Amino acid sequence: MSIVKLFFLLFVFLFVGACKSPTPHSYYKISPVEGAECLRYLERADITADEFMEVNSFANTGNYLCRVLLASWYERGVSVPIDYDKAREVYQAAAEANPAAYLALGRMAKLGRGQEVDYVLARQLYKRASDAGSLQATTELGKLMEGGKGGAVDPKAALDLYISKSKKYGDEAWIEMRRLRSEGITLELAQEAKYNQLWLQGLKDAIGSRIYKDKLWRLSVGVTSPATAKIRLVSRIGRSMPEVSVEESSGDPSIDEQILASMSLLRMADEFIYPEGEVFQVIVAPVVISRGEKIPRE
């Protein structure tokens, strides 16, 4: 039996707030301030000549987001005729400041936009963007490796890439890794350690999600101290739903009952990787409902 105690959760309150959608800043990997002048144009296709010149002016000052946006307009023919050479030139200028922009150059090489299709070059460009933190570039590179485009067919190398670049349980690289594992490709022992680390972090997030979905934050209204309990999760090979019990009471049976009912609905889309010869694991994790939190809007 493997007993895993989530020590990294022990002193961490699971704060619950309003859910936020990813912002353009996260997509383009820039600060919330940089590129603010061009944000209002991101989702628009009806760009006037004056607006085009405004973005072009900001791009010429070295503004990363404005450069990427301008290049995409040249590539797609927004407000100006399609000009792949100019698009590549502006993407390249952006990539010199932030290599994540090599994602766009890799896509152009893969699709043959204004050039011959070049999978070898696409791999090289995707790798540069992947190494800079672009998970989209990681998955694009991995799929070329899986399909043998620009090099040998090598799904194992693609799996290695996905696990090495995955940052969070369920992210783009994790999803591709999950697919290859379902096809029978296995992780190495050292890779399993990272997998389990991300899995445990995913479990922490799942606990926080259940607190929000089941409105357990209501339990903190009007109290003077956090409602705290520890739950015991017993996971078994082949089962997506763990057996849940209260390991340590919050001191209030009604709160324990609500926590238990909520945590009994926990699901993980992937299994923990068990050490050889073991078929189940026990995880003891705290559930902390912090006092004084703002009640999310419904």
TrEMBL record:
Q: Which PROSITE patterns match?
A: PROKAR_LIPOPROTEIN (PS51257)
Q: Known SMART domains for this protein?
A: SEL1
User: Which residues, if any, are the signal sequence?
Assistant: none
Top-rank taxon? Bacteria
Q: Which protein is depicted?
A: Uncharacterized protein
Pfam families for the chain? Sel1 (PF08238)
What organism does the record attribute this protein to?
A: Phytopseudomonas argentinensis
